[in-house]
Amino acid sequence: MKTGFDADDGRTPVEELARVAARRRDLAREEEVAVRRARHAGLSWAEIGLLLGVSKQAMHKKYRKVG
Question: What is the per-residue pLDDT for 54?
């Protein structure tokens, strides 16, 4: 019997949340690499923030150690 809590592919809510958490970690790593490459290529914090939809202050605060 299917409930409103089952994913379409049969995963339980716990499995689905674990999968989402893993994707978030992967995306965070990918973002950090992209920000580092953008800074090394000469993009400003404002440009990077604009591309990612956040303020330059938020980007600088999060990634100030990147460069």
Answer: 95
The pTM assigned to this predicted structure is 0.75
Count of domains for the chain? 1
Tokens for 15?
Answer: 């499995």
**Unique residue bearing structure tokens 């958490």:** 21
Task: Identify whether 1 is part of a domain.
Answer: no
pLDDT tens digits for 22-54?
999 999 999 999 999 999 999 999 999 999 999
In a domain, 43, yes or no: yes
Q: Domain span at residue 44?
A: 13-63
Other C-beta atoms lying within 10 Å of the C-beta of residue 13: 11
